[in-house]
Amino acid sequence: MPIIDIHIHLSDIESFRQTATDLSKVDYTAAGLKAEFDKNDVILGIGMGVTEQTKGAFPDSKSPNPMGLDLEESVPPFLMECVGINPNLLTGKQARQELDRIEARLQAPEVAGIKLYAGYYHHYVYDNIYTPVYELAARYGVPVVIHTGDTYSMNGLLKYSHPLTVDELAYQQRGVNFMICHLGDPWVMDAAEVVAKNPNVYADLSGLVVGDRPHFERFMNEPLFMDHFRRALVYSDHYERMLFGTDWPLAPIGLYAEFVRRLVPEQHHEKVFYQNAIGLFPRIQRRIAEL
């Protein structure tokens, strides 16, 4: 079965490099990613744009918009990109210039959507600072992907990344589709309710475990841990709006796919691993046709 991994990273971020070396033991390069894709029948991935201007500064308040995939010189043909947004620069005199750069990037065929780093940047997703970004999403017909749940940095603030904040946003912006990353973990029941209530909200299952096989085995063999996510999936009962993602390089792709296969009932695998991605990201089909 072909797979689309809708949540990977390919940016020059120090914490990602350290995780790849010390925890997940993956080759954090485009070549390393392609090798994992080929081994696991992944035909396309979507990279979440993010940059840091100073080593170890993620989330970097000085990163210019739009943030992209800067580990390599260009986006590899087997990837698409969600352009990352730094809301700290969307005020004052530079705001128009920042938004113009975001809009110019959205016109590129390899761009699949927009990524907000809620929690990392200290703004609620329903704040007016993001309104011009949602207007661009509606204009170009692309979804907005939102980090929710725990932050991979102690400098994040969890009140901004709680999945319930997406409920108010989804109500305000019915013309835009949103994807809750990481199923809002640890608030997975809250995220499940936001998906169930709002037809314009999806969720991905990325980043729920970080590390190599021994680490995964410990959690996959712990019923309480697995039931934490299964309960939310059963409650939401909207497998047509759940998507497979790995958060690579935080975990090897094949290992993460094994984990998600254990979580999701087999009759929903084709939707979660492939079909739902095409439904949420309209530009995917053309990109696949070009491969």
Automatic annotation (TrEMBL):
<dbReference type="InterPro" id="IPR006680">
    <property type="entry name" value="Amidohydro-rel"/>
</dbReference>
<dbReference type="InterPro" id="IPR032465">
    <property type="entry name" value="ACMSD"/>
</dbReference>
<feature type="domain" description="Amidohydrolase-related">
    <location>
        <begin position="96"/>
        <end position="282"/>
    </location>
</feature>
<dbReference type="Pfam" id="PF04909">
    <property type="entry name" value="Amidohydro_2"/>
</dbReference>
<keyword id="KW-0456">Lyase</keyword>
<dbReference type="InterPro" id="IPR032466">
    <property type="entry name" value="Metal_Hydrolase"/>
</dbReference>
<protein>
    <submittedName>
        <fullName>Amidohydrolase</fullName>
    </submittedName>
</protein>
